[in-house]
């Protein structure tokens, strides 16, 4: 399948709208998407979702019909979203995901196709969608490829990455990924990027992948809006300096909405039936992170957004 930008903009016209409110994933990936969307489309940052709890501004509560969930996938039918999780067991797309601009859904990728899963980050998907290039500087490239450990996925899954570059045609992939498999790129990630992120407090743990040559373990950053907003602001400043993306304002008053997150064997969902399970457990969002695991979150009502409470 070759993705066509014009077809996607027709199907999801909000992708080109200005001044939309957004809730982002509470991690590095969500923050760099927020910087991109604010700079190019003046989208407003109005909340965070860490896949268990939501922090949301009063403005978002009052403007729910225009809200976009970024680097996320949610089930309520009124929820527009852009993200890259696998959500299909065997080809079915549950009600609610029709408003999700998800490359795996669009390409028919299911839990049985993990070797074909979209390997890049949501911000790279956004760059392709809007055909926007970045500054040809190493630190700018590092900041982008650090999102969702894209540089490591490029090393470990070259065939799938090449196929997705074909799916998402008409973009300067060569420059973005040039040299990513080299010793020098790995060393510069470890000697230049990671120390900067560490100094900002923007490393909260390690991800599973190691680099192919120097065995460098990828770092990640997940945050709690209640006490990590200084780090969030520092990252926005970093993106502004090296990517030249004007940072969004951070909402100063947030309402906390607690949810519950669960992890189950995927086989149990298959036995029950996906749609039946989603209805019975009142699932708000879910993802299939591996061929055997099903993670989901509930806020106690299958028919409403938790923002309606």
Oligomer: single chain
Q: Give the % helix.
A: 25-40%
Intertermini distance: 41 Å
Count helical runs.
Answer: 13
Mean pLDDT reading: 95
Residues in β-strands, percent: 15-25%
Based on secondary structure, the structural category is alpha/beta
Low-confidence stretches: none
Shape: globular
Give the helices and strands as they follow along the chain: HEHEEHEEHHHHHHHEEHEEHHEE
Rounded to an integer in angstroms, the radius of gyration calculated over CA atoms is 19 Å
Number of strands: 11
Query: How is the largest sheet built, in terms of strand order?
Result: 5-4-1-2-3-8
Q: Can you give me a brief rundown of this structure?
A:
Helix content is 37%, strand content 17%.
What does this structure look like?
Helices cover 37% and strands 17% of the residues. With 309 residues, it is an alpha/beta fold. The protein has a domain at 5-133 and 222-243. Strand 1, helix 2 (28-41) and strand 2 (44-49) form a beta-alpha-beta unit. Helix 2 (28-41) crosses helix 11. The longest helix is centred in the middle third of the chain and has 17 residues, at 183-199.
